[in-house]
Structures are given as C-alpha cells and as structure tokens.
User: What shape does this take?
Amino acid sequence: MLWSRLFIPTLRENPAEAEVISHQMLLRAGYIRALGAGIYNYLPLAQRSLNKIQAIIREEMDAIGGQEFYLPALNPAEVWQESGRWDVMGDNMFRLKDRYGRALCLGMTHEEVMTFIARGEVRSYKQLPQIWYQIQTKFRDEPRPKSGLLRVRQFIMKDSYSFDLAPEGLDVAYEKHRVAYCRIFDRCGLEYVTVEAHSGAMGGSQSQEFMVKTTAGEDYVVISKDTGYAANLEKATSRPVPPAEPDPDADLAPEEVHTPNQKTIDEVAAFLKIAPTSLMKSVVVVTEDERPFLCLLRGDHQLSETKFQTAAHCGEFRPAHPEEIRTWFGADPGSLGPVGITALPILIDEALRGRKNMVTGANKDDYHLRNVTLGEDFQATFHDLRQVAEGDTDIDTGGPLEIAKTVEIGHIFKLGYKYSHSMGLNVLNHDGVETPVIMGSYGIGVERVLCAAVELYSDANGISMPVTIAPFEVVITPVKISDPVVREAADKIYADFKSRGIDVLFDDRDMSPGVKFKDADLIGIPYRVTLGKKLGEGIVEVVERRGNVKHEVPVAEAVAWVADRVAAAKSK
RNA sequence: CGGGGCGUGGCUCAGCCUGGUUAGAGCGCCUGGUUCGGGACCAGGAGGUCGGUGGUUCAAAUCCACUCGCCCCGACCA
Assistant: This one.
C-alpha cells in the first residue's frame, strides 16, 4: 500500500480526552476515532490489526474443532426471558422495541441463542460434543465507558460454547480452549497470566481469566513469581503480614475502656496506643434476602466481597443501615463488637485464628473492650473473608506476592447446566434417557487484545506492534523520494516485498525525513527499510521498531532479511 | 446516579475572574519556491454561529439560568 493513498490521520499532540496509553496511542497513530462515549470508529490501521487478530483466533478455534457461526446481535426478548437474564442484566443491556412494540435487545453474549439453536436440533448424544463459536459485535450499556477501547459500549468478541453429554466431556472442551487461548495470545505476541477466577454466585464450577498486566487495567490480580500462583484478587488467598504486636499473654477477662469519639480503627488504635493489628474490626452487612451478618476481621484487613458471598451463600449484599445496627447492637458503628451478640450469625476471618485478648467495640457508644477472645467471650465460625493486601506473602511458601492491575482479554468458564436447565436443552443418552447437556462458555475481547499489545509495547515515540498483529509488517522509507534513483530502488524493494506476500507499506510521501520516521515509529510497524545516504554504496538501513535496533544491509538482501524475520515471528 | 473538570478553526491551548473595535497563538491545512537521515525554511492564503437555548445589558466567548456533550474519581461491571 502507498502511504500517500492510505487514510492514516496521525496527530502530533495527544488529544486532551485520552488518559490511558493505549487510548492516546491509538488516537495519535490514526487507528481509531471516537464517535461517542464508548463508541469508536475503527480506521484502516485498526481494522487491519483487528482482522489479523481475528484470523489468528479463527485458525486456533478451527484447530480444536470449533465451528464458526454468525448469530444476530439483535435478539428478541423471549430467549433472554427464558433464561432469566432479561431481568438479571438490568440496565447493562441495551433494549429497544420494534414498530409493533415487541421487546428486543442487543446481545451482550450469546449463551441463550446458542442454546436455542442446540435445543431445536441436537437430540442425541451421538451429535455431541460440539464447539460452536462466532466473532460478533456485542453491546453493553456501560454505566461509565472509559479508557479508550478498554471499556466501551460496542465491541467485538469471540465467544464460543461447548456442548457435552457429561462433565468429563466438558473438562476436555475446557482444556482445549485453555490451550487454544494460550496459543492465540502467544501468537498475538502478548505477555499474560492466567488466573483462577471467581466463578460467580451462580454456581459455575471452574473458571480462568487471561490477564495482561497494565496500569490501565481495572482487575487486580495476585501473582507469586516464585510459585507461579496467580489468582484474581476476588479469590486470592495469602499469608497476612504478622500482627505488629503480640497479644497480651494471660487469661484475661474483657474490660471496658472509654474511647470518646474514637470510631475508626486508626483512631481507636492511636487512642489506645496499640497497633491496628491488635484490633478486631466489625463489619455488619445484610444480604439481598435480608439476612444480616457480623463479619470480624483484623483491624488492618478488608472484607472481600466475593469471599463473603461464598461464605454466606448469597448474591448481592449491602452494608447495614445505621438504624438496623442500633437495633441489633445497641450502639452506633464505631463501637461494635461480637460480645453478647446472638441475634445474627458471626463470621470470623481465618487471620484471627489463635488470637486472644484483642480490642473490639463494646456495643456501647464511646466504649471499646480489651481482652476479647474467641471461644471464651463469644462464638463465631471461621471463614476466609479477607482480601489479600499489599505486603502479604504466598500462602504456601511465604514468598513475596505482587498485586498487579490487569486487563482481562479472555475468560474460559464451565457453565454447567444453567442454560440447559432454564431453556430445556436435553439429549437422549445411550440408554434412551433424556439428559441435560453440560455447557462451557469462552470469550475473547478482540479490541482488548489490540489495546493490551499497545499498553505492553509502546514507548515515547509510539506503538511497537508485535509482527503478527501489526497493520503492516514493514514500511519502506525513502529519505528523498524526489530523487529518481531512490524512487527506482524503493519501487523495486516494494515490488519484491509484495511478491513475497509481505504486508508492506511504502511511504511515498514527498516529506521531510523526520516526519516520515516519526510517523513510522508512531504507528508501530515492526520493520523499516530506510533508503538514504548509503544507497549509492548499495546499502540500506533496516530498523527494528522494538528497541530501535539498526542494521546496514545490502540492497539486494534487504527484502529477504526482513521476510525471514517476519516469517520467524509468525511461525512462533 | 453522586463528586470534580472541560467545551473557543482539524489538534493543543490563551482570552472569561474585572463585558467594550475586525476573537488570538503554536501545530496542521492550501499555493509557490528553497530544502531532504529524526516532526525543515521563506512568502502568500483559507478556515471559528466561542457546544446549544433562554436571560441580564446600550453591548456577552466573558455575567446568570437551563440544557447537551466529553473526560476523570466513585458507585456499577454475567
């Protein structure tokens, strides 16, 4: 392609609206333009990259026996009502009505439609297993679109679904996807971690997320470099930092202390001149079915929402209202504790196992209790409730843990029978008995792969795309194209690249070299062939974008030099 | 939905507080010429209902009200 004919509107300065790196870079490099909040136009460079990502996805999905479908983005309400998600999705789903007033929505994912197809046509175990996938535009009415292409309202997703007769079959399909995803992301040139994910309160069994570390991400992941342990923060476990001070080692009885206006952990700790780790924090929450719980945590620890949900077997929950707390505890938040509380279940975090003589609220305003010990002064059941915190160590080895911000690029999930049951997807088994089909669901955010690559591989000069997903593999940059000798040499190299099937961009613009170098660096083409001063000696310069490594190569060898490296990168 | 910020040529921004001729700058764009290894130079030129509506005023980019849009923080995120 000739640069002069391509639409590549690069920007010299960062648009004011862009905050995260990938957003800034994709705008500046002329890949994307915003149409509205969370709605983007993909210009030719982005489209070329996205096409390459999708081609890799197709190859790997086909390799595990996946069959490509194309389902409608526009869905009638009925299928979603059947699965129950018409209500569950709430405001996150775009909904509309047709001219006759019939309810429709724009699909956020396609479990329902796939299940709809399967239940009409798949009748026998002999037709299983199946892996069905599509690459489709999805819609989500995000409360807050942000971070460029990272959180948007319309995006492309590869979603696949597996159908099996038995759990062992699902295990196979799940493992096939795990391996395929690794190959896909490896081929896209990404560095990523796979983490055990929380599978939701809905009871799905196993689930893993594919995450790329970036400060632009919103998901926190706990990683142990030594052991390879990696888990979503929602689910991660760790060894807490030991208490800052030892507990009083004596058989002591609770003792009231006056703590006027000392409400927060830090205030009470400072007032009593003890470490926050010597305090027991009381958190009162109420589940959506109106069951109240008292959760006890070490003063410096946070309650993990998902762990509480697991412990309490509940979905959504909320902090208790002050009036409720007053009714149950006889005191305001800030002076709450477990002693004397029997009206609601008490859950205590594992980190408090073995502790004694701690300080906690007295259930009397402006008073706390010293010397409170589980088993002696109150009863509670142990659960893992605390969220992993900075400074914690590996639960097995005690080695260092890192809490990293990441973006989720893929997710594999054992669905189980959720949709088979709600929508009636059954087949006859060997014995002629109607049996529900067990399903898996597997997604990849296509734009997020592009964003992750940009987040991972850009520098002050712009993007440095992996060869496999770069919009072009090589760019030819004649320093002075108005010189007929240079032009002729460049034309020849261009033709040679094309004949070898290399994606080549020819910067035929009659501009000063600085502009062309800057633009080439900005848009992230992995290799650049520069025809400059030494062309007279039969030498061109080949520059690797990543690391800005320069090589002087004889003109006659330049095309092969690049082509070999491109081929090597693609065959990895 | 709560909190904060912004809206002035294609981009980045100044001007607004303290109202007063033809609304500015840099970059980009067009024409001609000179340049040609890291966002060149000279000369000439085009381009703006100051987000919108209403109000105050002799007079509004500037003050007031409403409204729309965008960004950030939070809530939210199968």
